[in-house]
Amino acid sequence: MILRDLPAVLGVEAIDVDLNQPLDDAAFALLRSAFERRSVLVVRDQRLTPDAHIDFSRRFGELEIHVQKQFLLPGHPELLVVSNEFVDGRPIGLVDAGHYWHSDLSYKAEPSLASALHAQVLPAEGGDTLFVDMHAAYDALDAETQARIDGLTAIHSYAARNAAQNAKTSHRPALTEEQKRAVPEVEHPMVRVHPATGRKALFVNEGFTTRVVGLPEDEGAALLQRLCAHMVEPRFIYRHRWQARDLVMWDNRATIHLATGCPPHLARTLYRTTIKGDRPTGPSAASLAA
Ligand code: SIN
């Protein structure tokens, strides 16, 4: 296996590897450390079975079962189907997954560590995924803003995002009361210290962050708006152009991503595993622990 940094702000490609075969511990340690350093891992042309996709993902941690249970791959609940395809007039997956900037499951008390998407059916045009390097975005802020947000927390909500998407598309079902109870609002530091590298990253996103705690509403909204505009400047973005059977994994502690969409008549289907993470630690808690 060869690991080669992508010529972008983030990303590393693993070459000469077949993830159907389990990596030995030494090779896996190298892969994991490259992933933690570069935040996005690309492995081209992987003829992965659902089981091999799940087994590879499990090397990084326990897997999440997504709250939208109707879109899990039958027989493989660890795989969320992301798709714009319909069978008998019904969507086979989450049609609008990631059509807004977000970090997966930031709306949970213990947000996802990473997600791994495996391409099944790709459109001839469009369908790219964009990734932001949230370490670089934090590092590029002025010192005054960094000091201000280092001590702030913000609220993340899945129900608010689902309602916004539900208002836009008839294919996004409203949450049941049980689903709402499963995803209550949570509060996280606005800056997260990466548990593996110790680097700081912005940890707010347009998708799920609804307000800043302890600031008047308009001031908090202005701060969020400014940060969300800053983090998506082109200098912090890697654009992934999908190729057949790509496996792409991203670190949700250090990135946000956006599915750019494709013309609706062109099919696009991918399977996603989501790896459980830990409770985010902000800079002040990290320095107390040090
Ligand atoms: C997602 O946010 O998990 C989906 C990303 C994509 O479809 O490109």
CATH fold label: Double-stranded beta-helix
CATH class: Alpha Beta
Mean pLDDT: 93
Structural class: alpha+beta
What compounds sit in this structure?
succinic acid
Instruction: Tell me how many strands there are.
Output: 18
Strand order within the widest beta sheet: 1-2-3-16-8-18-5-4
Helical content stands at 25-40%
- Please, how many domains? 1
Poorly predicted residue ranges: none
- How many strands, which pairing sense, and closed or not: the largest β-sheet? 8 strands, mixed
Distance between the termini: 35 Å
- The CATH architecture term is 4-Layer Sandwich
Please report which band the strand proportion falls in: under 5%, 5-15%, 15-25%, 25-35%, 35-45% or over 45%: 25-35%
The total of helices stands at 8
Radius of gyration: 18 Å
Question: Going by CATH, what is the homologous superfamily?
Answer: Clavaminate synthase-like
Shape: globular
H/E element string?
EEHEHEEEEEEHHEHHEEEEHEEEEH
What this model shows, in words?
This protein has 290 residues and is of the alpha+beta class. It starts with a strand and ends with a helix. The protein is globular, with a radius of gyration of 18 Å. The chain has an 8-stranded mixed β-sheet, covered by helices on one side. It has a 3-stranded antiparallel β-sheet with strand order 15-9-17. The protein has a 3-stranded antiparallel β-sheet with strand order 11-10-14. The chain has one domain (2-289): Double-stranded beta-helix (4-Layer Sandwich). The model has no long low-confidence stretch (mean pLDDT 93). It has helices at 25-38, 50-58, 134-139, 143-150, 158-168, 177-182, 217-231, 283-289; strands spanning 2-5, 12-15, 40-43, 72-73, 76-83, 86-87, 90-91, 114-121, 129-133, 153-156, 186-189, 191-193, 200-202, 209-212, 237-240, 247-251, 255-259, 269-275. The longest helix has 15 residues, at 217-231. α1 (25-38) links the parallel β2 and β3 (40-43). Bound molecules: succinic acid.
